Amino acid sequence: MNRDQTRKSLEFSGEHVSGREVGGSSLMPMLIAELVMIAIGYFAVMIFV
Predict the structure, then answer these.
(1) From CA 49, how far away is CA 32, in angstroms rounded?
(2) pTM beyond cutoff 0.85
(3) Is the dihedral of CA 29, 35, 40, 41 positive or negative?
(4) Using alpha carbons only, how large is the chain's radius of gyration in Å?
(5) Reduced to 3 states, what is the DSSP secondary structure of residue 5?
(6) Closest CA to 36 of 44, 24, 47, 26
(7) What is the phi-psi region of residue 19: left when phi exceeds 0, alpha when psi lies from -120 to 50, beta otherwise?
(8) Which residues contact 1 (CB under 8 A, 6 or more apart)?
(9) What does the pLDDT look like over 1-49, one tens digit per residue?
């Protein structure tokens, strides 16, 4: 790097670092998947009991 060139600092916002969409919500798909897994586990246990 030459002395004439100045260093620029990079600034990232939280949305860019996390990889999420700004308008998107990752909580609802996780909750739905959790409920489905609980239901599958419940039925699997009830088959063997």
Answers:
(1) 26
(2) no
(3) positive
(4) 23
(5) coil
(6) 44
(7) left
(8) 7
(9) 566 667 777 777 666 666 556 566 778 999 999 999 999 999 999 998 8
pLDDT value of position 21: 60
* Contact yes or no for 22/15 (Cβ under 8 A): yes
The alpha helices in 1-49, defined as continuous H runs, are 14-18, 27-48
27/45 Cα distance (integer angstroms): 27
Side chain identity, residue 10: L
* Whole-number pLDDT of residue 24: 63
Token pair belonging to 3: 């002395």
